[in-house]
What does this fold into?
Amino acid sequence: MSSWRSFECREQLDSELANQIAACLKLDIERHGTASLAVSGGNTPKAMFRHLSNCELAWSKVDVILVDERWVAPDSPDSNERLVRENLLHNRASDARLHGLKTADADPENALAELHARLAHISRPFSAVVLGMGGDGHTASWFPQASNLRELLDPLGSAELAATDPISAPHRRATLTLAAVLNSRNIFIHITGDDKKAVLEGAADTGAPVAAILEQTITPVTIWWAP
Ligand code: 6PG
It folds into this structure.
């Protein structure tokens, strides 16, 4: 249950996706007094985050969490939390409440109880979840070679968070599970380039992890793409 929104250029994609996310947040603030947004890291969302940071809404009523996190210090260049702080929590969005997924624990497995408690008060369903995708068809930190991929992709799983070793990418990770991501009013997959478009279009055939998002019928999914 997914649809595409394709754009001529990345600038237009970033601006339009930011506006769409802002609309989702505003709607939940109007209806429920609060909103929650789960975002992914990586390079693709940086410019979109900057557009989103300038959108006018009651950001002090918005909880922002990470879809996944590399198990590195929050000031590491590889930290998704740092990426979100540097690109989203500025301008009008500086009042948003950011909840990172990194703790002082040596390994994310030891942090899961604390992380579940950290997310427990954040409103569900999420107003929106923004996912990226790697060239191998991973999304969140659901990597093809991960030994616990089946656990991560169990749509009926009770755990919202899990630790995982990507094998094919650096750093142990803490990640939302599929079950947690599906507890959202909207899922936006944000990708660019022809290569990623081909990977996404072929995901059902290859069994790439992102297919779990495309094949489910619980939550509306829109793919936002530009060349
Ligand atoms: C991460 C992300 C991951 C990302 C993809 C795409 O921690 O790496 O959450 O899922 O969205 O790897 O990354 P790029 O946008 O950099 O291609």
Remarks:
- The chain has nine helices and ten strands.
- The pocket of 6-phosphogluconic acid is lined by residues 40-44, 67-68, 70, 80, 132-134, 139-141 (CB under 6 Å).
- The first strand starts at residue 2 and ends at 6.
